[in-house]
Amino acid sequence: MYIEHLPHPYLNRYIETYWSSTDFAEKEVKRRVLPDGCVDIIFSFHRQSLPHIVGTMTTFLEIAYLGEVRFIGIRFKPGGITAFIRVPVNEFTDSQVELFSTESVFDESFSEDILWESSTKDIISSVDNYLLSRLPKLFLLDERIDYAVSLIKQGKGNTPIPFIAEQACLSKRQFERRFLAGIGISPKVFSRIVKFGNTRRLLKSGANRSLFDLAVDCGYYDHAHLIKEFKRLSGSLPSEL
Known about the structure:
6 strands, 36% helix, alpha+beta
């Protein structure tokens, strides 16, 4: 069971959603997590471990579990976590890092004061209140990169990178460097992930069109290009998703 929960409106600028996931598997189960351009902080209750930062992903992640599992996560908007941590986000790309091992506005009370036996709703409320209490301590977001992310999303991953850099009033080299530090991946890779996400949503909508037409509408060269990108990012064919 996977459920999303809205953050407090004051946190909307930084956080995409809170989420919770629970399951019980009598036999080993494998799940794929697909890249979305975001960074998460995840609490893993079945392991009783400290919260971890799961960095921006450039391809799918396959996880396996057995027995009872329970996760609660904070999914930050692209670049949103930079208001909470000092470290460049690309240091976490495609990896998991213990939250308290890096310089941030979090302290160990972030996990110590939460009653893990409580309901998911109460735990998320505690996390929400903690983050609200940290608002006066947040670092400034990179407004130019935030604007660049919005342009990439508006263009559904098809806006030319030089145009975005120009709109952000940055040289191509500055833009690439600051985007990598703030988002964790290059503008080109982020655009590919945004395009992939948009195409998946259209596939899920059940729109009656050929794969070739869908590929062209979404900005791929042809259906072979679309299939190649889906395999690279999800490990699956479009029809399997």
